[in-house]
Design a protein that fits this description.
Layout (H helix, E strand, L loop, with lengths): L2 H11 L3 E5 L24 E9 L2 E10 L7 E3 L24 E8 L1 H6 L4 E2 L1 H11 L7 E5 L8 H5 L1 E2 L2 E2 L3 E2 L1 H8 L6 E4 L17 H8 L3 E4 L13 E3 L10 E3 L3 E5 L1
Length: 259
């Protein structure tokens, strides 16, 4: 074993590196994003028992599961959006596995979101963060900490009103800066999708999806426990299921954090 990996194993065993679960439980109560009636809807999670120590299987228990690819804490591949549909290696089975691991840069806008739930991280906010924590490195996961995962009901989490959903996100300029100049792996959020709640009304609509996936970047949504990560210094591992032609999948996202 290499000295680097041996050191990691030793640090984990000694408790000097902590594994933080960034993943929400996945089940029938998991909130699912809603779309206007003209579009096809993603189903909620259903779990049906195949056998459970009974006459259908006396010594084993297993289930059939059904859900959309983008359900719960999930991974967005570039092919998920039209801007990324023609890129090479753009599906969950063709993205190089190396791209699922990267340093975490956690940008905390929790206080801003408490004052304005439609708050957007802009370039000035990113630059203020970098003035304190250093430039975002190439190949990083940029995680937007908003406190949104503390919302305990589906109604509060989805936060839909007469004019559509409301929630924080990235503005167009900062998404472009991250995808191009900073060359990040992708972005992660606590909300149900990587665009702000009102992003369907933006010009162009859903700019974070358009920009990130058009540049081959990745997305993570419905994360939790970002308050347990430092601004820098953690490593995130977020590997989707290797679905053939998949546009994404539920993911068990974890972070390795210095204790």
């Amino acid at each position: 074993m290499s000295s680097v990996l041996a050191t990691l194993v030793a640090e984990l065993a000694a408790g000097r590196v902590t594994v933080v679960d960034l993943t929400q439980p996945l089940g029938p109560d998991t909130p699912v994003i809603g779309l206007p009636e003209m579009f096809a809807a993603s189903p909620g999670v259903s779990i049906e028992v195949i056998s459970r120590f009974d006459d259908k299987g006396p010594a084993w228990y297993w289930n059939t599961i059904r859900m959309g690819e983008h359900t719960g804490t999930h991974f967005d591949a570039p092919v998920h959006w039209i801007t990324g549909r023609d890129l090479p290696n753009n599906t969950t089975d063709t993205i190089p596995a190396r791209q699922f691991i990267g340093p975490a840069c956690v940008i905390d806008i929790t206080a801003d979101v408490a004052a304005n739930e439609d708050c957007l991280l802009d370039v000035a906010g990113l630059e203020r963060w970098e003035a304190v924590n250093g430039r975002i490195p190439r190949g990083a996961w940029v995680l937007l900490r908003t406190g949104w995962s503390r919302r305990s009901t589906a109604e509060a989490f989805l936060n839909v009103r007469d004019d559509g959903p409301h929630g924080p996100g990235f503005d167009q300029a900062v998404s472009r800066l991250l995808a191009t100049d900073r060359d990040v792996l992708g972005v992660g959020v606590e909300t149900i999708g990587t665009d702000a709640g009102q992003a369907g009304r933006f010009d162009p609509p859903f700019p974070n999806h358009n920009i990130m996936h058009g540049h081959g970047r990745l997305g993570l949504a419905s994360l939790c426990n970002l308050d347990r990560l430092p601004a820098t210094g953690a490593v995130v591992i977020a590997a989707p299921l290797k679905l053939v032609g998949g546009s994404g999948s539920p993911v068990r996202a974890i972070a390795l954090v210095p204790a």
